[in-house]
Amino acid sequence: MDVLYVLIPLSVVLVFFVLGALGWAIYRGQFEDVEREGQRILEDD
Q: What count of other Cβ atoms lies within 10 Å of the Cβ of residue 4?
């Protein structure tokens, strides 16, 4: 039962970290043009 006192705050911190990373990626424009990146892989240079 004592392990819950560690796991619950740790999971909350992990959720905030994941949401922060997702927000940072959206803010930096990582998801702006997803179709172009898929086509770029298939193009022959």
A: 8
* Per-domain residue ranges of the chain: 4-42
Phi then psi for 30, rounded to 5 degrees? -70, -25
**Cα separation values, 13 from 4, 9, 24, 29, 38, Å:** 14, 6, 16, 24, 33
Quick: pLDDT tens for 1-45: 899 999 999 999 999 999 999 999 999 988 888 788 778 888 876
Taken as a whole, the chain contains a residue count of 45
| Overall pTM > 0.70 | no
